[in-house]
Amino acid sequence: MPTLRLGSIAPDFKADTTKGPISFHDFIGTSWVFFFSHPADFTPVCTTELGLVAALKDEFDIRNVKPIGLSTNDLADHEKWITDINKVSNVDLQFPIIADKNRDVATLYDMLDYQDPTNRDLSGVPFSVRSVFIIDPRKTIRLILTYPASTGRNFDEILRAIDSLQLGEAHRITTPGNWKKGEDVIVHPSVKNEEAETLFPGFRTVTPYLRLAKSPF
């Protein structure tokens, strides 16, 4: 199985989800996708995470991003768990959750936990870790994050990274450390100063290799 890297085409697969069967590439369509995995249903950290994603629906929508989760339980468990998630976080979870009881998709995307001996089912088979894949409409993997089972994700950071990726896709810029939406951006090194004057009027040169401009947002 080839290693998935930034720039790899996200492997296609078919799976059952809480919103019906999907083919992953068809699901992506012309959207960006936030694909994220969980160790198991009815677990505390996962419950809070899925509630947060449901609460951020409008934020994902305005970015043309489709969330899709994965957990190593069956659809019946997923449906019962969604009831808990909605109650705990006071949300209406609408995004699909993949049922990956046999770990087929988790294996394809290298999501299984090889570190934590407690993150296993009763047969000793590893559950998935907290993987994140941001995938663009070309089906290209643009970001990969992996959190251990014990650590819940920061969804503000995930939205921040999506903003950076999408801004860089639309404009010839990169973003500095700790950048947030609306803050100054970095003029891409490939842009010569003469062209930068047209693209980013009033940009300022900190060093010859670091030029800051107002955000195009």
Word description of this protein:
There is one protein chain. The chain is an alpha+beta fold and 217 residues long. The chain folds into two domains: 14-153, Glutaredoxin; 171-213, Antioxidant, Horf6, Chain A, domain2 (Antioxidant, Horf6, Chain A, domain 2), CATH 3.30.1020.10. It contains seven helices and eleven strands. It has helices spanning 24-28, 44-55, 57-62, 75-89, 104-108, 155-170, 193-199, and strands at 14-15, 22-23, 32-38, 65-71, 97-99, 130-135, 141-147, 173-174, 185-187, 204-207, 210-213. The protein has a five-stranded mixed sheet. Strands 8-9-11-10 form a four-stranded antiparallel sheet. Strands 1-2 form a two-stranded antiparallel sheet. β6 and β7 form a beta hairpin. α2 crosses α4 (75-89). The longest helix has 16 residues, at 155-170. The chain is elongated, with a radius of gyration of 19 Å. The termini are far apart. 28% of the residues are buried. The model has no long low-confidence stretch (mean pLDDT 92).
What share of the residues does DSSP label as strand, in percent? 15-25%
User: What is the string of SSEs from the N terminus onward?
Assistant: EEHEHHEHEHEEHEEHEE
CATH homologous superfamily of the largest domain - what is it? Glutaredoxin
Largest sheet: 5 strands, mixed
What's the level 1 CATH class of the largest domain?
Answer: Alpha Beta
Note the total helix count: 7
In the sheet with the most strands, the strands line up as 5-4-3-6-7
CATH topology of the largest domain: Glutaredoxin
Mean pLDDT reading? 92
